Prior knowledge:
Elements: H1 3-15, H2 18-25, H3 29-43, E1 48-51, E2 54-57, H4 59-86, E3 92-97, H5 102-116, E4 121-126, H6 129-138, E5 143-146, E6 155-170, E7 191-195, H7 200-212, E8 215-221, H8 224-232, E9 238-241, E10 255-258, E11 266-274, H9 280-293
Parallel strand pairs: 3-4, 3-5, 7-8
Antiparallel strand pairs: 1-2, 5-11, 6-9, 6-10, 6-11
Amino acid sequence: MNIKSLEYLIAFAKEESFTKAAERMHVSQPTLSTQIKKLEDLLGVCLIERTPGKQILTPAGREVVYYANRIHADISNIYQAARRLEDPWSSTVVLGVFPTLCPYLMPRIMPVLRKLKPNFTVRFVEEKSATLIEMLHSGQIDAAILSERLTESTLRVKHIFDEDFVLAASTNSEFGHQSTPIDISQLSSQKVLLLEDGHCMRRSMVDVCQKVGAKQSEFCATSLETLRYMVVGSKDVTLLPRLAILPPIVQPTGLTIREFNSPKPYRSLYLNWRAASPVDQIMEGVGKIISGVCANLHKN
């Protein structure tokens, strides 16, 4: 079986067009069509339903594409394994990060990784934590930064840093006219804007509300950016993670940030990866680099 034929079929599955698939693979359309037809003849099944102006995968085609993708991933792993024999850091890692951390953490760690490990490549996937856990178990990603320590025996986990929360309030609110730290107990008389279900940070926010007796707002935001702007025009307050307020992040006009006195509310971040993964031997090092970058965040 020709591996290139499988790659052509995968390209067709992504593009749903012989012409676009050929462009993607940098070959002529007849070449791609002929190779896929040879694959069909070899397997003895029709993989693509061909009608004038439209081509779609058959049920058999979809199943073959599924296995073809697995073969393609294994081939990629073979090449990476060969490179790692010379340099374990000559690897590509797919790292999952949840939305309330990814856009604030990645710009900080990437320059450091590029400088310290120039042959190391990281591709990021931004999804909510539940999806990242599924992707980690299925092998779609190599590792995930989560606000929880997964306990499965097939995984390795490293605590990388703790991130404290700050209070975000309107400059027109009772918290907007001072800059001194506040006690978390002062939230007991406030209504707190929360993120929608599915965000791991929502759990942390709810825990704080329950601890001090704060009310939870009926409104639920889809992102931290939405929370910022909702607070500006509201009497309600919210919590933001430390990385989301550090430069170069610019706060909207009308938003004030207040620090908490100790003990500060915070979340713990963990790097989780599969122990059997080909990149297992370098993930401890990746975790150490991230920990170093994020040490003493409150001093930035």
